[in-house]
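User:
I study polymers; will you set down one protein's sequence and backbone structure tokens?

Assistant:
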Amino acid sequence: MTPFVLLVVAKAPVPGLAKTRLCPPATPAQSAEIAAAALLDTLDAVCAVPGAAPVVAMTGDLGAATRAAEIGLALRRATVIPQRGWDFGARLANAHADVAAVHAGLPVLQIGMDTPQVTPESLAAAIAPIRHGGRDSVLGPAADGGWWALGLADPRHAQVLAGVPMSRDDTGERTLRALGECGLRPAKAAMLSDVDTMADARAVAAACPAGRFARAVAAVDGRAVA
């Protein structure tokens, strides 16, 4: 079975800087708790995928983050690299380039920390067209018009992301076009909802009710989750 890199692009969940669109109804502290829970649940899933080498491209002050000690322990299971670049598209492209320099020749599946409902099985399924189907790329669309996962047989092709506007309702379409323009023919992974608003957070929590994320979201509404 071909090994691959599972790249998580993450931001330290610092109160006042993390998930600010959840406020209100969440407080800055609650928003950071939700972001920390999302990252921890995501890392649990990533680190349980057979054949995956976990890499986390991190930005922000982890020392000031919510659940800093717990996140630090979780990150010991992965290779951590700093994000670099002038905007998000450039940081994504550079993260792929840095991974390619360390894990030469391995395909990469890149995700963020906004889809804590992922499981080891869903992540393995997302990269399967590359690992087992001979495809050169995979794009997992997000319900808001963006994308939640990008798989590349050759991560150097991620340089096209530097020219794609991110965080727009047509980012997914623009990314597909950019990949096609460099000769790739992406397979399509399952569509997921990511977390931008409190409505998103509640919907995603319902899809993964047993995790830290669901408990953090329930706390905003004054509910307890077993």
